[in-house]
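Readers of this paper often ask what the protein records in our data store actually look like. An entry from our holdings is shown next, in its original layout:
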Amino acid sequence: MRTLIVFNPTAGHAEQLEAELEAAAQVWREHGWLVELQPTNGPGDGQRLARQAVDCGYDLVVAAGGDGTINEVVNGLVGSQTMLATLPLGTMNVWARELGLPLQPRVAAQTMLGWSPRSIDVGRAGERYFLLMAGIGFDAAITANIRPAEKRRFGALAYVARGIEEVIRIRGTRANLFLDGRRIKARVLMIVIGNSQLYGGLVKITHRASIDDGLLDVCVIKGDNGLNAIGHLIAILRRRFSLNPDIAYYRAHEIEVITRPPLPVQVDGDPIGTTPMRFTVVPAALRALLPSELPDDLIQQPPPSARRWSQRLLAWLRRRRMEDEA
């Protein structure tokens, strides 16, 4: 399999892990894969390198870095037959955790030898595709204010520190949401639009989301101030937010969010602008390397090979029934 590893030399602790990247590549080479490594040099490089890999006929592009690196690679692969995989080197590694992938690159490479390709959905926020989720309001403000050096030095604690600062400043914002044309009005602290379930590597805010159901899941967190935000956060961490009347859950193909004043928007951990913004699902737009066993609610449809097997079994049972009746 012709494979390109696109790695972010500044993601997480990647400076100490380049030897492990080469070890991961060697695992695949020993199984006959043709593997090349290519570093990114700045914003947008991941998308550019992934698009070049598509044009050159690569079978697989492996995003080695954090979720931001994966997002760039996804934006270069959408609509192509070149597959996505990841080697986790970032701060949160949400996609790797969603798939149950080991967080050590060499072990992850060995694990993926048994995985198979399948088509999954992506979301689209304005002109930017996202694999995991889009955040509007509170979390996007944190993302916009955090510096790369803070992430490298402090990891997840950098988000906690910025989150405390933001809690002091946050106020509810008047919002109009249009979910497949249906209008919802609310005073919001944060909106999460999920293509997958895991948020921040910790909790499942869009806990009913599936990566192949042709829908986006929408969690609207309402409130007026930081005290409300803290209470909602506790409910989410305790997994009791479905009982909270200030947390509403919806599913839709298309979502438009209009707020006054405008709120920041982030996708897969990267800031991309402010509201108003339209979000849509793009069904089966991305080929990804996935494990054969995933939670039933994360994947709706059996993989093609399983469907063919079940179809053959049903055909055989029908033939046996006809023979018995004859």
